[in-house]
Specification:
By secondary structure, the protein is α+β, with helices and mostly antiparallel strands. The chain has 16 helices and 27 strands. Helix 6 runs parallel beside helix 11, helix 7 runs parallel beside helix 15 and helix 10 runs parallel beside helix 11. InterPro entries: Alkaline_phosphatase_core_sf, DUF229.
Length: 642
């Protein structure tokens, strides 16, 4: 049958129709090429993640926020990603001294024989306690530790020390030294907890465990934490906050909201450099008043959360405080004898994870709040995340098999993605730096008993969330009183957060969630040529603003000049996902001297035509010692010392 008999249109009409279709297709292609830079790196496929779940092309798709599902191995970053080799890992060597619950040490006679060809009767060991210096307002107390007097070590007997250095001898010949963190039952802590928990006992009470790993984005977690990711999904059935958005630049500005419910700058700035942090309303204080034992552990003590160019704490902030041990390990000669990421034959993060294991074993059926954060391994190197997979998997497996997670709510998370390096110059890197991974595990019995909470947690996996919401959830859990039918008698929200036990509003925007537009991942931005006059103006405003911020250090920091505009993006008030009333430009520049690379959001007021820098500015290449002449932790990233 002839074509024209099926479609009896004349040639002119056909050509007109063809031209219309061609115009539409070309227009669509132009639009998609210049549309949201998120869309350019979206993985436009459905990804099977479990038997009951298929991911759409969007992580978040609500009236208030849309975040596409991104490809972790996008071509723009693929050359930057590589798997670490097991050969580069720490040379694993099991020590013959084994740590048991309640600070008991025992000898593994088989390992002693294998490693040293010695029997238990042939050795004698002594230990020295590692102690924190007493608090004194005229000292940087939190940076001080001392080694106590030597004592004979008796194996199998609970020690009253928290941290020790063990030295073992064959007769008088030294052959082994080991730094060991312990978690003994502390009598005065137990007495205080028993007094406080009266009246707060509840059948739905859960322990709280917060375990963080520095600088791991959601995408880098997928790339490198293969065993851990699978275990979280298939065994622990964890809830994942896919729309979790950081609210500040670095660790301090993202963990302070989680732990206190307030932005860090509401508490601290350089004028308060001599301030101790004891008075802050940390969430663990709330749990302590209800009879919970509390623990705070960090590695990388020089750059610790409240200690980097700050004074830390006058008194130990929690019942169990890891910092004196961390200082002792770093200042020992162990690191000199091993690869940078290793102490003894283990990753430094493993020391923190072992401490967590010991603490949970010692506490057993006691109530506790635990916050542990490890940064040494992953802070600066994108692919070192691969080394953290096995220790993380082993920790989660231990907590699950020991039954700990059956009576605990666990937050397993990071503070932000990698902040420096080549990946930060890519489109993908701009997004993932703002989106750390976050998982929550909740006991199955608790979920069944409270189906509304479970439903809300599942819904909130695909809502815009922040550290403030984690804080509100912890407050909610503390005050939670459940009915047998699973309804809630009490709801909890903070000044800036909403409990994840409640449903996060579907129309929530970054502005609603107190996320600055500079950090907001809901922003739909499109490419704009760096040669556009408005971009040149925005870049100059950015550099002028940085110089203005450094005006008090003009005698120490060189005046910056714009060297090059690397990249520019634009979002407008026509976009329902962003802040209304302005046009905003995300501009990346290089300045001189120092070849610093900065990323800033500059707002154009459409009425006044004024350009202003929004909130903070990101430094996306490492600055090392370039700013060693000033101590201001916020401004250091901008300064080039003269």
């Amino acid at each position: 049958m002839q074509f024209h008999t099926l479609f009896p249109v004349n040639r002119r009409r056909f050509l007109a129709l063809f031209a219309y279709i061609l115009f539409f297709v070309i227009g669509y292609l132009v639009y998609t090429r210049n549309s949201s830079y998120f869309e350019q790196i979206t993985k436009k496929i459905s990804v099977q993640t479990s038997a009951n779940e298929v991911l759409s092309q969007y992580l978040i798709d609500t009236p208030g926020c849309r975040i596409p599902h991104l490809d972790p191995f996008d071509s723009s970053v693929k050359s930057l990603i590589h798997k670490v080799s097991k050969k580069d890992a720490c040379k694993k060597e099991k020590f013959f001294i084994e740590v048991k619950s309640n600070a008991k040490l025992e000898v593994n006679v088989n390992l002693l024989r294998k490693n040293y060809n010695l029997s238990f009767d042939e050795i004698n060991c002594v230990y020295k306690p590692i102690l924190r210096e007493p608090g004194h307002r005229n000292l940087t107390t939190d940076n001080q530790f001392k080694i106590g007097n030597s004592k004979i070590l008796t194996f199998g007997v609970p020690l009253q020390e928290e941290f020790i250095v063990v030295r073992c001898f064959k007769k008088t010949q030294f052959f082994h030294e080991e730094y060991i963190a312990l978690t003994p039952i502390i009598q005065n802590v137990e007495e205080n907890c028993k007094k406080r928990e009266n009246g707060f006992s509840n059948g739905d009470s859960l322990n709280v465990m917060i375990i963080g790993i520095d600088s791991i984005s959601k995408l880098n977690f997928i790339r490198h934490f293969t065993k851990t990711h699978t275990y979280l999904r298939t065994v622990l059935k964890a809830f994942e906050l896919r729309g979790y958005n950081k609210v500040g630049d670095n660790t301090f500005y993202n963990l302070t909201p989680l732990l206190t419910g307030f932005f860090a700058n509401q508490y601290w700035n350089i004028t308060k450099k001599y301030m101790f942090f004891d008075h802050l309303n940390f969430i663990w204080k709330e749990y302590s008043t209800r009879g919970y034992r509390t623990l705070f552990a960090e590695d990388m003590p020089k750059y610790a959360l409240f200690n980097y160019n700050r004074r830390g704490f006058l008194h130990p902030p929690t019942d169990y405080y890891y910092r004196p041990f961390s200082l002792a390990v770093v200042k020992s000669d162990m690191l000199k004898r091993h690869k940078k990421k290793c102490s003894h034959s283990e990753l430094e993060m493993q020391f923190v994870f072992d401490y967590v294991k010991q603490f949970t074993s010692t506490m057993d059926d006691k109530k506790y709040f635990l916050f542990a954060f490890t940064a040494t391994l992953t802070h600066n190197v994108l692919n070192y995340a691969g080394y953290a997979d096995s220790p993380s998997y082993d920790l989660l497996q231990f907590l699950h098999n020991s039954g700990t997670l059956n009576r605990t709510i666990m937050i397993f998370f990071s503070d932000h993605g990698i902040r420096f390096g080549k990946i930060r110059k890519t489109l993908l890197g701009k997004i993932e730096e703002r989106m750390p991974f976050v998982f929550l595990t909740v006991p199955e019995w608790f979920q069944k008993k409270h189906p509304i909470i479970t439903k809300n947690l599942r819904t909130n996996e695909r809502r815009l969330t922040t550290p403030f919401d984690l804080r509100a959830t912890l407050v909610h859990l503390l005050k939670f009183i459940g009915n047998n039918d699973g309804t809630l008698r009490e709801t909890v929200s903070s000044e800036k957060g909403i409990s994840l036990f409640e449903e996060i509003p579907i129309n929530r925007t970054c502005a609603d969630a107190f996320i600055s537009s500079h950090w907001c991942v809901c922003n739909n931005r499109r490419n704009i040529s760096p040669q556009e006059p408005i971009i040149a103006s925005a870049a100059n405003v950015l550099v002028d603003t940085l110089n203005h911020w450094l005006k008090n250090y003009s005698d120490k920091c060189a005046k910056m000049k714009l060297k090059k505009i690397l990249d520019a993006r634009v979002s407008t008030n026509k976009n329902k996902y962003v802040f209304q009333g302005n046009i905003e430009y995300l501009v990346t520049v290089i300045t001189s001297p120092g070849e610093a690379v900065f990323e800033g959001t500059i707002k154009l007021n459409e009425n006044t035509k004024n350009l202003t820098v929004v909130d903070d500015v990101s430094r996306i290449n490492i600055y090392g010692n370039q700013s060693s002449c000033i101590l201001d932790t916020h401004l250091k990233k901008f300064c080039f010392c003269v």
